[in-house]
Amino acid sequence: MEKKIALIGPNGTGKTTLIHKLLNDEHVQRSPQLKVGYFAQQLEHLNVNQSILDSCKESSSQSETLIRTVLARFRIQT
Question: How far apart are CA 55 and CA 46, in angstroms?
Fold first, then answer.
């Protein structure tokens, strides 16, 4: 059974730092089954010459149908 959690809290409390540690720090022990998802707020890797759908398809292993469904749930038209 897959479980999901959200990390929430006020600005400046270290949420992003914790996620970065989970993603990048080899000294952090984590379960081999752990899958960390992270959406960067800065969008520094966003290609503004590409549609949101194409951008998502390029960086996702999910099907286009699922990507469209998720985008639609965020009220993003593709």
Answer: 8
- Confirm whether pTM is higher than 0.85: no
- What are the tokens at 27? 């000294």
Domain-wise residue ranges, the chain: 15-73
- The CA distance from 46 to 73, in Å, is 20
Which DSSP letter does residue 50 get? S
Per-residue confidence (pLDDT) for residue 18, from 0 to 100: 87
Tokens representing 49?
């010459």
29: left (phi over 0), alpha (psi -120 to 50) or beta: beta
Distance, CA of 30 to CA of 26 (rounded, Å) = 9
pLDDT at 55 over 80: yes
Measured distance CA(16)–CA(10) in Å, rounded: 11
Provide the 3-class DSSP secondary structure of residue 21.
helix
CA-closest candidate to residue 78, choices 67, 48, 40, 62: 67
